[in-house]
Amino acid sequence: MLTPEQEQWLDSLSDRLVTIVPYDPQSEELFKIVKEKIVAVLGNEVKVEHSGSTLFHMPGQDEIDVAIVADKEMFSQYIEKLEPVFGPVRSLYPDRARFEVKEQGKKIDLKLVDRHHPNYIEGKLLDDYIMSHPEALERYRILKEESDGLTNKEYYRRKLLFNNDILAKAKSRGEITHI
Asked: Over the stretch 30-81, which tens digit does the pLDDT of each residue have?
């Protein structure tokens, strides 16, 4: 089941077709290169995380998801330092800022995210759950593989339903005690 907010977000998406490609083994190395650039600009204390399908070594949309996790109060300071390296912010929301980046021809979905926002917290819990539950990892892999050729809206609808199901299951088992 989807929340009204999720339905509203889905309605804002385009009907472009999604292309799913096999896992690219270079993803780990490219993540490290991008992380090194971020650390060079923001310092060693910055938290940089790899997420999305390449984290799990599975098929995806041919991009690497990278998150700079920070307090929202740091956004303007970080953006000012990141833009000379990664270009201008392409979208700015209350909980995240998104950059469009390429590294060695590969799309990098680089986001500055608010460490306290429920979207980040849920995403982190979801990634941790999938990593530690092989049956969830396999379901996610199948979802990805079966998504090739779907519209963007349908792809994200299926992902949200999967995510909501996993989070509800983990919560009912006591494996997640807060969201």
From this structure: 999 999 999 999 999 999 999 999 999 999 999 999 999 999 999 999 999 9
Upper half-sphere CA count for residue 45 (Cβ side, 13 Å): 3
10 and 31 fall within a common domain: no
Triad 156, 68, 93: Cα angle to 5°: 55
88-106 pLDDT, tens digit each:
999 998 899 999 999 999 9
> Could you tell me if 119 and 95 are in contact, meaning their C-beta atoms sit under 8 angstroms apart?
yes
3 and 55 housed in the same domain: no
Q: Are residues 151 and 79 in the same domain?
A: no
* Phi and psi based region of residue 174 (left: phi greater than 0; alpha: psi -120 to 50; beta: remaining): left
Residue 177 lies in a domain: no
pTM: 0.90
Domain count, the chain: 2
**CA 156 – CA 61 distance, rounded (Å):** 12
Instruction: Give the structural domain span for 133.
Output: 1-18+117-171
